[in-house]
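Explain my protein.
***
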Amino acid sequence: MLVIGLTGSIGMGKSAVAAMMRERGIAVFDADAEVHRLYEGPAVSAIEKAFPGSSEYGRVNRQLLARQLAGDPEKFKALEAIVHPLVERAEREFLKSEAARGAKLAVLEIPLLFETGRDRMVDVTLVVSAPRDVQRKRVLERPGMTAEKLEQLLLRQMSDEEKRRRADYVVDTGGSLVETEAQLAHIIEGLMHRECKAFKRHWL
């Protein structure tokens, strides 16, 4: 089974590309969705212990947590040390399940794939990208988003240029959905012939 790492900066269209892959019958594990699930229960006690006052009503309050994390890289590392192992455990279970059902491809959607060195644990990397003005327009249309918040988010992420340079494949989402689908179809066809090593090496 080929393990694909799907990534891209905020507003580049990862979710749209992930949905297209699911429509083709390829399972996608969403790391962000798993973090949301962990914040609703499984990771609450550990996060509250490390960041007192960051939870309420039995779940992590993301705004309260964000205030404690603001401008402190060391606190981000402490949070990641709690959350990342739990996410990785869920990813392992997902990949084992997909292998057991005979899947030829499985996708890990990881926003900070390169930043966290997780690209070493997949067979191929697929970066979703778009022109900077398109990215900015998409993100600023989100509820509660401001230019300042966007800049803060981008500071934590590797540049789009560097991600494109490191990628095995790039999907440009700056055009129409039809164009994006055509690119993805071509890439998937090529993936069927790639050598599969990552699953046995890193996930069993």
